[in-house]
């Protein structure tokens, strides 16, 4: 499962999921209970029923400060208020100096399937300025975190290092997962979750919300703009998935990010001199692994014990892809590719190890969203385009199997319409983003009449975490308008030099060419 | 009996309200003190939170271009020679070659750590160098096929029981101190005027020749001065409420808000202090021979509560001070603002002690009004 | 009626009162006449209980001032020297304040104040703050304060000091009125004309003792002098401390 639009919420430990067994999605045979028709009738998504909550002081992972935690009880199926209820948990990170309780910022996590609360620390750091004056709300979207998570844990057979992913059958794994889940997975789509969000807003008593959505969270934010515009003050979409866009097109974005990396290296004298054959080496590795995985014995990255490494195409590409999410880890990719082509899998194992335990993505919820909202609108053109790249093909294959099991009702076609709104909206894209390219930001702008789109040249996915983008958000929240916001500071060069060996980013002095290295550095 | 007290209090208040000096003394303080504090906090916050670019001197910057670029992205640059702070960063000649070999590369930070002004800049530079180093360390481990998380055997989870309010600590103490001090300042002029001043104007003997007891007179005067002190306190609180709301506390990571429950608590806790202030000031003024003399005595006597208040706000010797007047109430108030449980026992005892001292002083005054020496200054 | 019996009082090294006894009767104006330092003020302060006598006692309408000060003072009105005005109060507030201190209710005090203001022709200044008043205006205000609660006994300490002729005449008229209404008026003075013109009874004091008691005429007869002044000099045995 290779297509999560992770937001790099967890500072250095970037998220990923290359391990197939976690992709185990399941299927609903009794899919007779259809989703409430979530057509373009925004106001029918009115106040949800049943609110029971407990607000308590609590602590969240990584933050020493006291927060307010609580949950509300909502019907799993909003159209059956008397039916089964689930708890939707939230955390309010209180403003340092509250400017009155009428407005707060709702930060929405990515994935789909990431828990906002588990990523509180990242949100807190990034939104520190906003928090000076506004409460920040984090909601574990239904199916994630503490809100009836749809986890597909799997059986955890062997070490993930030894697994050959192609031995796994996504359909079968999905079925297993579905059998284990105590939930009507068809109710875990974005629109049902949106009604939960609105219920939490009402419960907490905020008149208006400022939205910050990152990655998949931008979809939730856009739906909020569409269905409850009267409760939205401003919106920031960071790494945006426009409504018009199926996330399954992410394959193109990944390929583009790889191309940009190769280009960056060849434009950089140091990198180019060190790795002159980078593109060829990448191709070579990919095609070699496509034929057969390479099996070797290595020291386990964590335990140090001897263990088998089955280096597959999936692991190799997946680990590199995840490295593209972080500007600092990205600097290690040329060295990693080069070493792998020389038969040294240490760096790629290191990268892979970082992503072995997933990103706290609730795969069941992930499948519910993707199968209902993205898989269903896969057009032949999109399918053809996705099939051009390795990642696209893999994703199509996986979802073909798992969505057949999950059997989600399709969203209405109006779901895919561009958001038309005059709510002040800030759109942030990272030029190097391996998930949501700047062109998607442009697409999101289509019918936004009061929006600005900035592209941060050195940022990847989650611009606000890597640049001054968070200050722009604070400015937007404070002023309530985009007109005065100036994205100039996003152009600040925050990039890092590429690693030239396993130790250094500086020119490697050779006996004779110190001079040459110096000139190289000046460019 | 009590009618006469009311009559006297009414007269004292009318009299005082028409006395510009008495009114202004309270007013200046009530308006001035919070504004002054605000000005001070503004300056403090400005100093703490404007992360201006830090200019340092760097020797051999060409030896570590990536490091230099990193520092500059964090606002630490090699500035103009004359604007440089006195911080020198020396990149060793073998930086790049050691780095390439996976050996620690030397970077030397040269500065005078005893220079207070530099300390913040030094810490900032050190922190950024540390971050750079640890990020590279993690990536070096990854490049060697090792999960960098093995470098973090302990994950420390801290659960801080402080609330945003309680972080204000010392600043709150200072602010609260200026507030409670209002009861001393605001009533001071009236206290002198109604005692030493009354005698100086020969109305004391006249008053005593009327059918009122010295006890009634003392009580009426205490009530009047207390009321004045409390009005001063209330004014100070109201001015603080508005003034402090303009201070961007949030930039310091906490909030200071003078809300109505705080005002209520402050008035309640401040009452015994105001009573004691009134008794103390009246007592001292009665002992003095003239208005002027009373003023100079009081200036000295008022150092006492000031010192108690300071001790409480700066948390010096809190064990003994928590039972004493002023410091006891201040400590309780600070706890209250910090959102902790009000130390009821401590507050009750220190308030009782405060009232006991007041009663003693009042008794002394009542006695002294029967003394020919005091009344006629014989 | 004010009666002092065997009053002795030492202040510092001075025997201010020395076994002093006299009485001032209702319906009479009694003058306490003596040179400076004779103990007049000390005597009056003792009458008011402001000073405690070493010996003897003072009674107001038969009430011992030392034993029941409040009840005794209720029967007293004091015109002090100096006046002890509250500069920032108006005469109306000032008078009414003391009326209330003497036990009148707020509304009674108001009425009494109004009538005394009328009586003393204070209306034009009644609602101005006392600051800047002339000596005569001050005198009237102080006097109004002394009589507002209609005490049986009115004590005046050097009442004519610093007053011009007009004010002095006004004061005399008022004192006579009071006498005619049956009040006991006791005042200290060292001004012969005053005493001669007003008093039914003169008590001549020197060095804390009563030297002589009687009407001005009786005193003249007693000493065989024509004027009270000469009689006075004769009585105290020196011309020290005499004001014209």
What does this structure look like?
The complex is a heterotrimer of chains A (about 525), B (about 375) and C (about 240). Helices cover about 35% and strands about 15% of the residues of chain A. Chain A has helices at about 120-125, 130-135, 170-180, 190-205, 215-225, 250-265, 270-275, 280-290, 315-325, 325-330, 335-340, 345-355, 365-375, 380-385, 390-405, 440-445, 465, 470-480, 515-520; strands spanning about 55-60, 65-75, 85-95, 105-110, 135-140, 210-215, 230-240, 295-300, 305-310, 425-430, 450-455. In chain A, helix 3 crosses helix 15, helix 9 (about 315-325) packs across helix 12 and helix 13 (about 365-375) crosses helix 15. Chain A is globular. With about 375 residues, chain B is mainly α. In chain B, about 65% of the residues lie in helices and about 5% in strands. In chain B, strands 2-1-3-4 form a four-stranded mixed sheet. In chain B, strand 1 (about 55-60), helix 3 (about 65-75) and strand 2 (about 75-80) form a beta-alpha-beta unit. In chain B, helix 6 (about 170-200) packs antiparallel against helix 8 (about 215-245), helix 6 (about 170-200) runs parallel beside helix 9 and helix 6 (about 170-200) runs antiparallel to helix 13 (about 325-335). The two termini of chain B are about 30 Å apart. The relative contact order of chain B is 0.12. Chain C is of the alpha/beta class and about 240 residues long. Chain C folds into two domains: about 1-75 and about 155-160 and about 175-245, P-loop containing nucleotide triphosphate hydrolases (Rossmann fold); about 85-150, no CATH class. In chain C, about 40% of the residues lie in helices and about 25% in strands. Chain C contains nine helices and ten strands. A six-stranded mixed sheet of chain C has the order 6-7-8-3-9-10, with helices on both faces. A four-stranded antiparallel sheet of chain C has the order 2-1-4-5. In chain C, strand 7, helix 6 (about 165-180) and strand 8 (about 185-190) form a beta-alpha-beta unit. In chain C, helix 3 (about 90-100) crosses helix 4 (about 105-120) and helix 8 crosses helix 9 (about 230-235). The radius of gyration of chain C is 18 Å and the shape is globular. The interface between A and B is large, with 52 and 47 residues.
